[in-house]
Design a protein that fits this description.
heterodimer; A: 365 residues; mainly alpha; 70% helix; B: 305 residues; globular
Chain lengths: 365, 305
């Protein structure tokens, strides 16, 4: 048995829409097999994982909280990936953004002003962008592989945060726990809708970022430049676009969004700095970007789906007693199925059972 | 004596890097960029640990690690070779899936004392002062790593199949036109890479720190990828680079133990920072990188029928 691919004469619009859905369905099928192997009732488990978190208002708020950083980071990454710049160090840019934004509430904690929060957000975004500038600089001027450098910087960022929290920024009144001092009230990102739950303004930032980037990609010259340089650097050069400038642009943009996500998460959800501030948002956002087909509006939807896997993982841990590691497995499976279903957009897939049949098939054509 | 002890730990630290990098080198020479090394490595580590616990034999553990890595790499092979998906994204998917699955599979092994691969005592040779303990009183995995570099070097540059494999990596269309089975060779190369990453992972959980810790690969898979670039796709340079990195990561541990005035976190950054510095030095000359990189690296191949 062999699988043969036949290039479609034109890209299938239908499958462009169907393939992410198909990937979701296949992930659910694989997930239920996995639950069955773990000795859990698959229907009950999937229900606990993917349905129950959606039934209550407070947990919809939690969904928005978890979706916000995923969408913010993934929107930035989509610009990078579209332009063929492989930034996979968003987790590090998230961390440095959180640190840079926390300078005001931790170091200058005596300063009380309504300006604190906006400045924190700006500093977070700048911190993320500056950290993303390192792989950009190395790629643009030393031709260094950006995948490896951006990833190595994740480990460096996390160790740096660890050092800060255990050293200079440790809360003097924290009973020696590795946490920073709690942010003052004016440094806390407020909730959008206080009466019903905790969801804070990061979700609004995420939606705004997605819409703005969607507009840029669709209606501006910059968006066209991104797509052209991503598909063919040579073609882009002939059109007078600079791939070097694009490296800078895409990395700074995605770094700024990841940094904004970082400071929003710290000031909105956690309220202080601690050694672990992210359950892998920077890596999960890679899946979000691909599931959303690198389209900012699609990313809003896929961000909510991936946020549900985090929430469902927590819920399933309590209600059916499976490990929260299942979340990561679901996420990995989803990315696998997304990538394989995308093949259907460009190719017709034919399963050939034997060599003879392949030959007769050719003759018949 | 202290020097000898340091040298021994450097060898143990370098071995998994070197083995994983050898596997990736063969994969990349065939034109396939598999960024899933970290995922295959961690799966190999958990597979090896589980098998060793179940059977009580570290050697069956090593075999299980190799098998786990190879089977896991087939997922990547199927997607990138049969379904021609993007190699970069698929490799990332393999790493994410591997980190998740290994965490889940290994959950019940956390805190359990592991089974260590014993050192091989070679009569007479192991007794030579200094050289004996360093070179001839090591575990099986170290000898395998040395055998691998010799074997791979011979295979790539002296054998007919190796020539074909390199031809595929440099120009898959021409190789296909010459009647070489591109897809099958690439499948084998990917599986070899997976087997090596699996063995490297097994070394971590059965030799380096004989226990299971979640995420215990700690970026070594990525450092192995960087080593391949550093070595400009040549086996002996991988060996040299691997030992350099082993020395850096052990150096920082010893520096921490001596309690020099630098915070431990900064010392722990050293292997990662060293990777970046080395990548800069290697790749800043655009022309030499272009000459050495397999020309169809990372490009999808669809045979026309």
């Amino acid at each position: 048995m062999r699988i043969e691919l036949e290039k479609r004469p034109q890209v299938s619009k239908l499958f462009g829409f169907v393939s992410p859905l198909l990937a979701l369905v296949l992930t659910l099928v694989a997930g239920s097999i996995m639950f069955a192997l773990l000795g859990k009732d698959p229907v009950g488990a999937l229900n606990a994982f993917f349905v129950e978190p959606l039934l209550e208002v407070w947990s919809l708020h939690e969904l928005a909280i978890k979706a916000a950083p995923l969408i913010l980071i993934a929107v930035g990454l989509s610009v990078c990936y579209r332009s063929n710049n492989w930034n996979i160090g968003a987790e590090g840019q998230f961390t440095i953004g959180a640190i840079a934004g926390s300078i005001l509430p931790i170091v200058f904690y005596d300063w009380h002003s309504p300006l604190v929060l906006p400045l924190m957000l700006i500093m977070g975004a700048i911190g993320g962008a500056l950290f993303a500038a390192i792989p950009a600089l190395l790629k643009a001027h030393f031709n260094t592989n950006e995948i490896l450098t951006s990833l190595m910087l994740v480990y460096i960022a996390q160790l740096f945060l660890d050092w800060l929290i255990r050293g200079a920024w440790r809360d003097p009144k924290g009973f020696n726990f590795p946490v920073s001092r709690d942010f003052a009230p004016e440094a806390i990102l407020p909730a959008i809708w206080e009466e019903s739950g905790r969801a804070h303004w990061a979700f609004v930032f995420a939606i705004l970022a997605a819409i703005l980037v969607w507009f840029m990609m669709r209606y501006t010259l910059k968006g066209f430049e991104i797509v052209v340089l991503g598909q063919s650097e040579r073609a882009g050069r002939f059109a007078g676009f600079s791939s070097r400038r694009m490296i800078w642009f895409s990395f700074l943009l995605s770094g700024a969004l990841a940094g904004l996500a970082g400071i929003s998460e710290v000031s909105g959800s956690i309220g202080h700095l601690q050694p672990a501030i992210s359950p892998g948002y920077g890596f999960t956002a890679i899946i979000v970007a691909f599931l959303g087909r690198l389209n900012p509006l699609g990313i809003i939807a896929s961000g909510l789906v991936l946020a549900l896997t985090y929430l469902g993982g927590e819920a399933a841990q309590l209600s059916i007693g499976v490990s929260d590691k299942v979340t990561r497995v679901f996420q990995g499976l989803l990315l696998f199925f997304v990538l394989s279903c995308d093949t259907l957009i460009f190719y017709r897939i034919r399963i050939v059972w034997s060599r003879v049949q392949a030959v007769t098939g050719k003759v018949a054509q | 004596m202290i020097f000898e002890a340091i040298l021994l730990t450097v060898i143990t630290a370098a071995t998994p890097l070197v083995i994983a990098a050898f596997g990736e080198l063969v994969t990349e020479r065939a034109g396939v960029l598999n960024l899933g090394v970290e995922g295959m490595m961690i799966m190999g580590a958990v597979g090896a640990f589980a098998a060793a616990q179940a059977t009580g034999s570290p050697y069956i553990g090593l075999l299980a690690g190799i098998a786990t890595g190879a089977v896991f790499s087939l997922l990547f092979g199927f997607l990138t070779l049969t379904l021609v998906t993007n190699q970069v994204a698929t490799g990332l998917a393999l790493t994410i899936l591997g980190l998740g699955a290994s965490g889940m599979l290994g959950e019940s092994y956390v805190g359990i004392p592991g089974i260590k691969v014993p050192q091989v005592y070679i009569p007479y040779l192991s007794d030579i002062p200094f050289i004996g303990p360093v070179l001839f009183h090591q575990d099986l995995v170290f000898y395998l790593s040395i055998a691998l570099v010799i074997g791979i070097n011979w295979f790539l540059f002296k054998s007919r199949r190796g020539l074909k494999l390199r031809a595929i990596g440099d120009n898959h269309s021409s190789a296909h036109a010459l009647g070489i089975d591109v897809i099958r060779t690439r499948y084998l190369a990917v599986m070899f890479g997976g087997a090596c990453a699996g063995l490297a992972g097994a070394q971590l959980s059965l030799v380096y720190t004989p226990q299971w810790v979640e995420n215990m690969a700690a970026g070594r898979g990525w450092i192995a990828l960087a080593l391949v670039v550093f070595a400009s796709w040549r086996p002996w340079r991988v060996l040299a680079g691997g030992y350099l990195f082993g020395a850096v990561s052990i150096g920082q541990l010893h520096a921490q133990a001596f309690g020099i005035g630098i915070p431990s976190q900064f010392l722990s950054m050293l292997p990662y920072a060293a990777t970046i510095v080395v990548l800069i030095i290697i790749s800043h000359n655009r022309r030499t990188t272009l000459i050495n990189t397999p020309a169809s690296l990372g490009k999808a191949f669809v045979p026309d029928r």
